[in-house]
Amino acid sequence: MSLSGAWRRLLRLPASPSDLYRDGNRSAPRRDCDCSDRPLGCVSAADRGIAGALDAVRQLGHGVVPTLLCLTLLAGVATQAYAQTLPAVSFESPSLTVGEWRDSGVRIWLTLDPAPTSDIVVKYTVGGTATAGSDYFRPRIFGSLKVQAGTKETLITVFVTRDSAEEDDETVIFELAGGAGYRVGSVDSHTLTIADDDRTSSPRIPVAWFPSSRSVVGEDAGTHEVTVRLSPAPTSDISLDFLVAPSWGFNGWKSTLGADYTVSPIVRQARRDDGQRVAYVRIPVPAGATTAVVPFTIVDDRAQERNELVVVHMDLGQGYAASNQDIHTFEIIDNDGPSVDSTPVASFASASQSADEGSGTSDVTVNLSPAPASDITLSYTVGGTATAGSDFTIANSGTVTVPAGATTATIPVTLIDDSVQEGSETIVLKLAAGSGYKVGSSGTHTLTIAASDPPVASFASASQSADEGSGTSDVTVNLSPAPLGDITLSYTVDGTATAGTDYTALSGTVTVSRGATTATIPVTLIDDSVQEGSKTVVLTLAAGADYKVGSPDTHTLTVLDNETPPTVSFEPLEGRIVSARTSWVQEGSGTHDLKVTLNKAPASALKVKYTVSGSAAAGADYVALSGTVTVPAGATTATIPVTIVDDDRREHAEEIALWLVTDGPDY
What we know:
The protein is built from 3 helices and 48 strands. Helix 2 runs antiparallel to helix 3.
């Protein structure tokens, strides 16, 4: 048996059998190791790797058995060596405990060592006591991760769901599964524990949040700290995780990690699709602490540039929950020469709002963009129909202070609840020009104080009926107490009657005069010549600012048709008449159409009902009948097909009796 040159080069075998021996002498084996006295030479050297296996081959001699043994040894060692070159996929940590305080994503990191040389798909299974869909949501593609060539880290994202149920902590367990192009590393499973925040029997997991959503820092400030609060304080040391990313500024300028700012300690970095670097930061928090800071260093460059934004996003991490105040954005103000106008613009958050006079304090919000770099004072005027001192009060009326970095300010309006029954009143706030800010387009806000002790409106009755030819039917609305000023009630119109055809269309509103306790909604009925049956006009009171809706809040007016309905009768079978109400047929004569006649055609399709009796049995002597027949609109006849069953039984004559049934006013 011989090996080709290619195999010899691959296995690194000697070119000639004599090379296995010193000086070509077969009787003198080469002493390349200290175990030549073994029967098979240094075969055990294979245990020490490929080099050992080749050493063993050199001492086995030349022949079939040594060659096959060599190949077997080399194949096993080569397979083991190849497996060692595959990337080992491991979870970064075996476990993580997070809170369920809000719906939020959890990042579970995996490492690959070495990075794969081609794209691979890492597979994993999911188990645990938590329920997918109620305790957590998972991505559409769950159970596998596509990892691109050269990647050394990847992640699984799970979205934790907050509920109000008091329950035990629950787990989501991930276990790596084998697959092509990688091997499972040492940390092959990860347990995500979702800590319940609704239990009162044990300490609650700390909740972390940003006390402010925005701040401002000058480029020459050197450092900037973003404060985080925790409640309750952790009972042991924990670490808070954050994602720090650049963001577009108000004027379209984007910050850059490293060039405009730095942050520490950075756990890892990644690049977004736009090429910008983002940083994952982990801040230690000692037991008992209720605050922490994310420290930034601001880079003071000489570039003339626009202001830039940095976004700090709080991630879920080990031993805490993140509230819905999980994002903080700070703006870096450039200090190198002329730049765009950064004067804050003040505007009301909304143009109007309303409140009951007994509701206490109503906050009117003012927005500022961008946030001021130093404290400023906004000025405003107060107007409207409400009276200061008797209807409302405003502390420090006319001004409100906005601290540096804040993007909102609040004007608290305290409403006074009196015993006077009065109409709605307004408080109109208008922003005035001042130092350090500009007034935006939404510079006016109207706060409406709803009428105190407003009248309760309700229908005098829940229903009534009227003939379509009776003209106008008045629907009465009661009010208690009587309004102190004119008010307008609103209502909706529904029902089976058609506006414009069955009655004159209604406006949807009715005015109640000051001091009145009733109001009337006139419904004018239209008398037509169509035979159509009864129809309804349904009125429903709608809520309003100057009154409350009582019961009954719905009134149904039934419009009775005044046209005589058609008369329905049977017509005996032609040629088979026994009497005016009786016809005869032969058992084997098949199907006979029994005609129903009307003395006048209906305006719409008319369903006529009938019952069936007699000595003949349905199903045995004739095909069972439905009990109804429909007369089309405009027609005066309809037929009932009666199919006679021809059997082999000898029997007496039998009868099928059909009886018309009157059902309602339609015939």
